[in-house]
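Dear colleague,

As promised, here are the two records you asked about, laid out in our usual form so they can be pasted straight into your sheet.

NAME FIELD: protein one
SEQUENCE, THEN STRUCTURE:
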Amino acid sequence: MSIEELSKICMNLISNAGEGRNYVFEALELALREDYAGAKSKILEAEKYLSEAHRIQFEELMSPQARGEEIPFNLLLLHAMDLLMISISEKDLVDTIIRAKSTDV
């Protein structure tokens, strides 16, 4: 895989992970205002983007490498993987908070 191909894949992954993360923080803001239905809706939107980012990671990076294709390492790849991991972790945490708080009322 060329650096140019890798860069395109990474930017697509970053775009989806970042958009998903934005929805996660919108969900958190709604939950803080006790709009749990709105917060849950934002989490569902976040999941769409994070699922696409995860698909990109698996199908376009991990699977080719598992088949023996060399994936060049660079900081953009590191950033893409880090952003996806952080975004999924934050989504899980915010979703847990929403579920806990929405059952309190």
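NAME FIELD: protein two
SEQUENCE, THEN STRUCTURE:
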Amino acid sequence: MKQAEIIKNLTDKQIREQLYVTQFIFIIISLLLSLFLFDSFSTWKYLFSVQFMQIILFGVVPALGLVGIEIILSKIIAAHHLDDGGINERVFKNQSVFHIFCISMIVAISEEVLFRGVIQTTFGFVFASTLFIIVHFRYLKKPVLLIAIIITSFGIGYLYEVTNNLLVTIVFHFIVDFLLGIYIKFRK
């Protein structure tokens, strides 16, 4: 059974629960991997840095740019090229703004902690970005979505390479997911 067919048979609450379970698994994997791959658990504190200008310049500004580009593309590219099987529509369309906020925050934290914090820190930029693309497998059969996830994945990886700051990538990821989630919710 295709993922889109499974999604059609789930309620909005079940979709939200499955999303939260997946993200919780990412956090557990991150913590377990860090026990084996980091010199000590205290390595985590070196991956986060509260530098507001860095977060704004490398997190907020590029995220707003990407959201703008994605919204423009959604207006000029045929909808079937951007359809991920209706999954993003179901995840965001009928959720409250509060749940879109929560989903976006949890996804941003769990995915960035795993892919940038553990995997990129240990195995490098290309490996982490490639794995991030593979995990978003529903985009692999759609050329436009595939190009978008490749650019996004390597873009986030590059931001982490430049800043060595997970807060930058978490803020970037959150803003993109939250604003696009809001866009999906309210578009006609």
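A couple of things worth noting about protein two: The mean pLDDT is 88. The two ends are 29 Å apart (CA to CA).

Best,
R.
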